[in-house]
């Protein structure tokens, strides 16, 4: 319908005409008229020719109908910025708007790391980027530059794997898709996905507790998985051993436990990968963790222990890397299967057991990244004669989307990247959303 600009303008004019010359005996007729206009503005905006007169009409009527006119202006601004809703409103959504005094909003529950629920007030014009901004404000993040580094996933206990939501997607469109597909067991999960602004900054006060808990509960499972621990020749250095023992002691204290952990408990405080090392006996780990508790950790509060844990974990060599298991890579120099890591410095190919770096591609060398179902194609090096790597990755869609967001952070916009390419057919225009396409491309 966006192609039929004349029809859209005609609809806008007819609604305005009914509002201007309203002779209905119904008391709520004017309110319903403004609400109808608000619904339409969630999807379409007037043409450039009509726009100045349309905005003037809204501003001229804002005194008599302040809340509803402001709602229309808000929807207009969102549609102008994000392109408008994609799915038609459900009956529940329309009934909610018609019955409410203003925005027809709803309280939506999001889950933070650790399963902590957070309720946000949302409206029919709320996009995922708005939700993330609200979350960051409630977390009292001291560094506003980190806001864009967070993401929202939708997961279901019965459906396919989680989906990374595009910041420009409308929340109510996503919810309506869940209703249409009869998905009732979905959850909206918030995580930090980008690690561009590191080290993290924390204010040690009451307002920061929620943020500290958020990061702590996200990073503890990642530590235990051992994904960020690089092991060389089946050995770890003494420094790394003491660092892991310190984090184990901090996690024990952060759990509000007192006394000393047993040998069996210590096993649950260490990454799975280091427990497989035969050169360090369980008793040695236990003694080292006890020493860390005695030295300073035991006297800490639980919040102090969490804060110290976050400070220490940031010194890990692979901190800030997001990992994607790759079943195969068609490059003989890279052992398959392996792990593909996405970080602010580029694309890493890591040994699946030791996390040693087998190969890396800085973002400045990337020519293009394409996705076809569960495979990604990476072209890198010379623009005239680029090299090529194809990988089989289960979460190829998320990998491409994440790499694209890092590229936007380092200042390489899609438009400038397009100018460097010779085959313009393989790239999306700036307004497209690669997150949901069967074939996604960045650069």
Automatic annotation (TrEMBL):
<dbReference type="Pfam" id="PF00373">
    <property type="entry name" value="FERM_M"/>
</dbReference>
<dbReference type="Pfam" id="PF02174">
    <property type="entry name" value="IRS"/>
</dbReference>
<dbReference type="GO" id="GO:0005737">
    <property type="term" value="C:cytoplasm"/>
</dbReference>
<feature type="region of interest" description="Disordered">
    <location>
        <begin position="421"/>
        <end position="443"/>
    </location>
</feature>
<dbReference type="GO" id="GO:0003779">
    <property type="term" value="F:actin binding"/>
</dbReference>
<dbReference type="InterPro" id="IPR011993">
    <property type="entry name" value="PH-like_dom_sf"/>
</dbReference>
<dbReference type="InterPro" id="IPR035963">
    <property type="entry name" value="FERM_2"/>
</dbReference>
<protein>
    <recommendedName>
        <fullName>MyTH4 domain-containing protein</fullName>
    </recommendedName>
</protein>
<keyword id="KW-0009">Actin-binding</keyword>
<dbReference type="InterPro" id="IPR038185">
    <property type="entry name" value="MyTH4_dom_sf"/>
</dbReference>
<dbReference type="Pfam" id="PF00784">
    <property type="entry name" value="MyTH4"/>
</dbReference>
<dbReference type="InterPro" id="IPR000857">
    <property type="entry name" value="MyTH4_dom"/>
</dbReference>
<keyword id="KW-0963">Cytoplasm</keyword>
<feature type="compositionally biased region" description="Polar residues">
    <location>
        <begin position="424"/>
        <end position="443"/>
    </location>
</feature>
<dbReference type="InterPro" id="IPR002404">
    <property type="entry name" value="IRS_PTB"/>
</dbReference>
<keyword id="KW-0677">Repeat</keyword>
<dbReference type="GO" id="GO:0005856">
    <property type="term" value="C:cytoskeleton"/>
</dbReference>
<feature type="domain" description="FERM">
    <location>
        <begin position="105"/>
        <end position="414"/>
    </location>
</feature>
<comment type="similarity">
    <text>Belongs to the TRAFAC class myosin-kinesin ATPase superfamily. Myosin family.</text>
</comment>
<dbReference type="InterPro" id="IPR019749">
    <property type="entry name" value="Band_41_domain"/>
</dbReference>
<dbReference type="InterPro" id="IPR019748">
    <property type="entry name" value="FERM_central"/>
</dbReference>
<dbReference type="InterPro" id="IPR000299">
    <property type="entry name" value="FERM_domain"/>
</dbReference>
<dbReference type="InterPro" id="IPR051567">
    <property type="entry name" value="Unconventional_Myosin_ATPase"/>
</dbReference>
<feature type="domain" description="MyTH4">
    <location>
        <begin position="1"/>
        <end position="98"/>
    </location>
</feature>
